[in-house]
Design a protein that fits this description.
By secondary structure, the chain is α+β, with helices and mostly antiparallel strands. It folds into three domains: 184 residues, set domain protein methyltransferase, domain 2, CATH 3.90.1420.10; 130 residues, set domain protein methyltransferase, domain 1 (Alpha-Beta Complex), CATH 3.90.1410.10; 130 residues, set domain protein methyltransferase, domain 1, CATH 3.90.1410.10. Helices cover 36% and strands 11% of the residues. It has 16 helices and ten strands. The longest helix is centred in the C-terminal third of the chain and has 30 residues. The radius of gyration is 27 Å and the shape is elongated.
């Protein structure tokens, strides 16, 4: 049985086979932002601390471009996150706090209109925008020169962690995801260097290093907007000064509108409204993404939420080619929106994701239950898999899932109790992320184990396919007894 069923949840194999696209997002999130500066001095709101000179220069540039005026209701300020936008007056919910004209957006259209547009035309959008960012940052006459002056060299995203810092993620799925992403970025850079950068030395006179490329990748990963009307990838200066807050429970705050973009011009504008009512001196917040897990927040932005419901663990299930029923099972899986490999994100204190149990039962199906794979059941089998098929089938998925959880738990170098003890002290920001991630994953593994332990205890009381079928035919009583002479055959 083990040869045809596997739940690959260990960190070593978690993301194998998953198509990785670095800017694909879950849900309908529009914003991917991150604090633009790391300020060593942290102020409580309302306390006046001068912003760095580069921010003043950036703000003056926005004034000259007609983006802000004396009526702009916000200003940059030093806040607990580093740098953010602070309300200059009381702001009502859904009131517009900033608008940025399209001519200042950094997107594939900006690349296409630039000197490197022709050589970048065949690239993935994010690769062309990454090259554009690197090239513009090196130019003294770039339109965005003062914007680049406030961008960080790196964030607390795990892609920038040292080997020692990453060692604190031992056993976690986030560690393997981070290493896979870093390898992906390195491979993309090598290909770009060979095919685009080196053959076009006149367009790229300044040397471009792997560190430059990681900088651009991090900027896009943390700041790029998606799903803004026809925009799939766009960086908008000024908008990324706004920080994230878990208190904001809606993502409906960003809009693309047509409006005045200067004294005598009209353009498409990025318009952002405050999702919260604010008092003068309050920081403006938005919600980056309601659907991201803490691991995704750590990878993209370099922070996590203390909210345990953000913790998630991904179970990876696979139908193996060695399975004697591989073709039938794959056909059934694909007919119901799955594939040879399926990924299920399990969140803390939430029900198991839809499709997990049917897929598990399908992968484990065999022996006397294999008749359900016949073509006569093809249109109805998924409905049968929504409920327990047989005791052997249900027992197998419980046993394998529980073993998987125990194996994964053994891969961490600390216990939940040790992590909780560490959190009582004031930790470095990156260590705090690592402790929070590994504690959350272990809690999820315990939760999954408990769910399937409870299912094991329920096995004798469950109703299986044969009993349900006999009841439908009127051949089985409500207590489960087989009626008449049929009982001797069961």
């Amino acid at each position: 049985m083990a040869a045809v069923f596997s739940a690959c949840s260990g960190s070593s194999s978690l993301f194998q086979g998953r198509n990785f696209f670095p800017f694909a997002t879950k849900g309908s999130s529009s914003l991917h932002l991150k604090r633009p500066l790391t300020a060593k001095c942290v102020a409580s709101l309302g306390t006046e601390i001068s912003v760095p000179p580069a921010v003043d220069t950036f703000w003056q540039w926005l004034k000259e471009e007609g983006v802000i005026s004396n009526k702009t209701p916000v200003k940059p300020g030093v806040v607990p996150e580093g740098l953010g936008l602070v309300a200059l007056k009381d702001i009502s919910r859904n009131e517009v706090v900033l608008q940025v004209p399209k001519r200042l957006w950094i997107n594939p259209d900006a690349v296409a209109a630039s000197e490197i547009g022709k050589v970048c035309s065949g690239l993935k959008p994010w690769l062309s925008v990454a090259l554009f960012l690197i090239r513009e940052r090196s130019k003294d006459d770039s339109l965005w020169k003062h914007y680049f002056g406030i961008l960080p060299k790196e964030t607390d995203s795990t892609i920038y962690w040292s080997e020692e810092e990453l060692s604190e993620l031992k056993g976690t799925q986030l560690l393997n995801t981070t290493l896979s992403v870093k390898e992906y970025v390195k491979n993309e850079f090598r290909r770009l260097e060979e095919e685009i950068i080196l053959p076009n030395g006149k367009l790229f006179p300044s040397p471009i290093t792997i560190d430059d490329f990681f900088w651009a990748f991090g900027i896009l990963r943390s700041r790029a907007f998606s799903r803004l009307r026809n925009e799939n990838l766009v960086v908008i200066p000024l908008a990324d000064l706004i920080n994230h807050s878990a208190r904001v429970t809606t993502e409906e705050h960003a809009y693309e509108i047509k409006g005045p973009a200067g004294l005598f011009s009209w353009d498409y504008l990025f318009s952002l409204r405050s999702p919260l009512s604010l008092k003068a001196g309050d920081q403006v917040y938005i919600q980056y993404d309601l659907n991201k897990s803490n691991a995704e927040l750590a990878l993209d932005y370099g922070f996590i939420e203390p909210n345990g419901e953000r913790n998630a663990y991904t179970l990876t299930l696979q139908i193996f080619e060695s399975d004697p029923f591989f073709g039938d099972k794959l056909d059934i899986a694909e007919s119901n929106g799955f594939g040879e490999t399926a990924y299920f994100d399990i969140f803390y204190n939430r029900p198991l994701p839809p499709g997990l149990l049917p897929y598990l039962r399908l992968v484990a199906l065999g022996g006397t239950d294999a008749f359900l794979l016949e073509s006569i059941f093809r249109n109805s089998i998924w409905g049968h898999l929504e409920l327990p098929v047989s005791r052997d089938n249900e027992e197998l998925i419980c046993r394998v899932l529980r073993k998987t959880c125990k194996t994964a738990l053994a891969g961490y170098h600390t216990t939940i109790e040790e992590d909780q003890k560490l959190k009582e002290a004031k930790l470095d920001s990156r260590l705090a992320i690592a402790v929070g991630i590994r504690e959350g994953e272990k809690q999820l593994l315990q939760q999954i184990d408990e769910i399937f332990e409870e299912k094991e205890l329920e096995l004798p009381q469950l109703e299986y396919y044969q009993e349900r079928r006999l009841k439908d035919l009127g051949l089985c009583g409500e207590s489960g007894d087989i009626l008449g002479d049929l009982g001797k055959f069961f």
